[in-house]
Design a protein that fits this description.
The structure is a single chain. The chain has 25 helices and 16 strands. The chain is of the alpha/beta class and 694 residues long. The strands form 3 sheets. The protein has an 8-stranded mixed β-barrel with strand order 8-9-11-12-13-14-15-16, surrounded by 4 helices. Strands 2-3-1-6-7 form a 5-stranded mixed beta sheet, with helices on both faces. A hairpin with a 2-residue loop joins strand 4 and strand 5. Helix 6 packs antiparallel against helix 7. The radius of gyration is 37 Å and the shape is elongated.
């Protein structure tokens, strides 16, 4: 039941409150230890050391310090060591100096054997010395001052001073330990005491309560003292079984991290204690491409990878932050106190940086990455469930956009009431369009040859004029449709409308190719090729009359994409690769796919006159596309200077406001007839284009 979140061996920075606390208690505790040693009767100690009883007590104290009795899931506080029973008995019988000496030796040996950090060992010696000193002061107030030369045996009338001494011992030790933990984890000491004092007080009561019996046996039958190991073992194993059940209920079996149940408790505590000037952060992390590791290397290797990820995460957060595993390759990180969104992003970036270090398993090196979603209290949600749901929304935005880290954005939450209402309105608009309504319309933007000025086609851009909210940008409603069941219906409408308009142009003497943007999700629809085939036949159009624009995601090699692309190639419908340069394209797959055109993203094109880097990027893309025998199209052409530079580079086609803004069908038809004298688009084997967005 090792807790991977245990960072107590990490030394505090000099000058911090934790450093000051540990240093102060250590100095005070070792001063009390020195004073006790100076008061020790050397002659009495030598005589005591010559008895078998002394060495039996020493051995039992050392053994009792090796492994604690754990009764609380708050492992950062630690458990209760059985040595308490014997050191308290020595205090009662032989006095404070002998008790602190045995305790100090036992704690030091424990530190060496368990390889604890030196500052922890020093603090443990100090706090146990101060706890024994507090108990000795209480006993002294009742006139009880034992020594090796004058051992003390308690009687029935002495139960009250013994009980008070035990309370003083427990209160002192619990306060000092919980104070250190509270400062280490930046938590309230009251919260730490509430979580640990209750369970530990029961064990302390049992151990300290048996100490007077040990004293009686020591005084009358020293040889029977080892028999106390039996009830001690019973206490230990009973507590261990209880702790194991508690741990299993609140922790993940594979990684040892807190599970969802413990995360809920920790989050609710953090929310209850949050100050007005602070935020509580909840991160959701999902490993990218983890399924590939499981499928390729098997689940045992995947499990080891998850354990390594858990270790890296817990050692990349601050003490007091909670790393939990929610299941599969999904982790959560709770920040009980975070300054602002900027600080939250910094923590998320640090977590991703820790994960990106290569992992070597089974002789292979794995590159691990994760997508992180961030939600903050009270900015984004008032409770745990809503925080988790909104961190999940942000995480999927990071995964879909390949940005790595995303903060929750209400306008991109498809589950928000506003977006659900908008989704319902979009469904109504699609249904109304089928019944002859007019909220949804296609506008068309020309594509012009940069060298000849010939019309090379048009791109269809979907527009939605809401009866209440006015014009709604495609950037708002298209992603909403992509994340819902409406995308298929919306794509079907756009394709049918584009084919109908293309038919009007072609049969009217304007052989214009229309390009339609489709999403990666559309490519997963096996009915897409059939829909196009039926539509082309109905409107009497050749396959070249329409072109489909797809994103770079199709280059990932997903077999489902490949099958649809092959079917489209067989049908003869050309493909255009949109927004090239913004993703992670595989040039090998670009060459193998049935793509006839590559569109260079406007973010590069607009800056080529001002940025040497963007100029080099665009020039390289144009050269690459030409070497593959494909056509290059530059988006976002808005000035003559940019158009001239693109033409000089050898870019084939330009699209942007320089040539024409997106226009409704009547206006773009007039524009096309005005430019009909230009060379036909079919010289390039290419026709106009329709897009959902733009």
């Amino acid at each position: 039941m090792t807790d991977p979140t245990d960072t107590r061996d990490t030394g505090p920075r000099v000058g911090t409150p934790l450093w000051a606390f540990l240093a102060g208690i250590t100095v005070i505790g070792f001063t009390a230890l020195l004073v006790s040693m100076l008061r020790l009767d050397a002659t009495g100690l030598v005589e005591l050391a010559g008895t078998a009883l002394f060495w039996v007590l020493a051995v039992l104290t050392i053994l009792g310090e090796l492994r604690p009795v754990m009764v609380s899931s708050a492992a950062s506080v630690g458990g209760t060591y059985p040595s308490t029973m014997f050191t308290f008995a020595v205090l009662l019988h032989f006095g404070l100096p002998v008790a602190v000496l045995l305790q100090a030796v036992a704690v030091a040996l424990n530190g060496v054997l368990t390889r604890k950090a030196w500052h922890r060992v020093m603090f443990n010696i100090a706090q146990s010395t101060l706890a024994l000193t507090a108990a000795a002061v209480v006993l002294g107030a009742f006139g009880i001052v034992p020594s090796p030369a004058a051992p003390w045996e308690p009687g029935v009338p002495d139960l009250v001073p013994i009980a008070l001494a035990g309370i003083a011992y427990f209160v002192t030790r619990a306060t000092l330990v919980c104070g250190a933990v509270a400062l280490h984890e930046r938590r309230s000491i009251v919260r730490v005491l509430k979580a640990t004092a209750g369970p530990q007080s029961l064990v302390y009561a049992a151990l300290l309560g048996m100490a007077p019996l040990v004293v009686v046996v020591m005084d009358h039958s020293p040889g029977l003292v080892p028999l106390f190991v039996a009830p001690l073992a019973a206490v230990y194993f009973t507590a261990t079984l209880s702790m194991r059940r508690d741990h299993q209920a609140l922790h993940d079996e594979l990684t040892g991290l807190p599970n969802r149940k413990l995360l809920i408790v920790s989050t609710e505590e953090a929310l209850a204690e949050a100050r007005q000037d602070e935020r509580v952060g909840l991160f959701l992390l999902d490993l990218d491409r983890f399924k590939e590791v499981n499928d390729t290397m098997g689940h045992p290797v995947g499990d080891r990878l998850l354990q390594m990820v858990a270790h890296r995460l817990t050692h990349s957060v601050r003490p007091g932050d909670v790393v939990a595993r929610l299941g599969g390759d999904e982790f959560a990180v709770l920040l009980p106190s975070i300054r602002d969104t900027h600080a939250a992003r910094e923590v998320a970036a640090r977590l991703r940086a820790a994960l990106t270090e290569p992992v070597r398993l089974e002789g292979m090196t794995f590159d691990v990455d994760a997508s992180v979603g961030i939600a903050l209290y009270p900015d984004h949600a008032p409770d745990f469930e809503l925080l988790l749901q909104r961190a999940d929304v942000a995480m999927y935005l990071a995964k879909e956009g390949r940005t790595g880290v995303e903060l929750y954005q209400p306008d991109k939450d498809r589950n928000s009431p506003e977006r659900l209402t908008l989704l319902g309105d979009l469904r109504r608009a699609i249904d109304d369009r089928a019944a002859g309504g007019g909220e949804l319309r296609l506008h068309y933007q020309p594509k012009v040859g940069l060298g000849s000025g010939a019309v090379q086609g048009v791109e269809a851009l979907l527009r939605w004029r809401h009866p209440v909210h006015g014009t709604i940008p495609p950037s708002e409603f298209v992603p909403l449709a992509e994340q819902s069941y409406l995308m298929r219906q919306l794509t079907a409408y756009v394709i049918d409308e584009a084919l109908a308009q293309a038919a009007r142009w072609w049969h009217g003497g304007l052989r214009v190719q229309v390009s339609v943007n489709i999403s990666a999700r559309d490519l997963l629809d096996p009915a897409l090729p059939e829909q196009l085939e039926v539509g082309l036949a109905r409107y009497g159009l050749p396959p070249a009359a329409i072109q489909l624009e797809v994103t770079e995601r199709i280059l990932t090699g997903d077999q489902a994409y490949t099958e649809t692309i092959k079917a489209l190639a067989t049908l003869g419908v050309p493909l255009s690769l949109d927004d090239f340069g913004t993703g992670y394209s595989s040039l090998i797959r670009l060459q193998r796919l049935a793509v006839s055109e590559v569109k260079i993203d406007a973010s590069f094109v607009r800056r080529i006159a001002d940025s040497a880097d963007d100029d080099r990027i665009v020039r390289s893309i144009v050269d690459l596309v030409r070497s593959l025998g494909l056509r290059s199209v530059a988006e976002g052409v808005e000035s003559d200077d940019v158009a001239m530079r693109l033409a000089e580079m050898g870019c084939d086609v330009g699209q942007g406001w320089l040539f024409g803004e997106p226009m409704p069908p009547a206006e773009v038809t007039a524009w096309l007839r005005e430019h009909a004298g230009a060379p036909a688009a079919t010289e390039y084997g290419y026709e106009p284009e329709v897009s959902h967005t733009g």
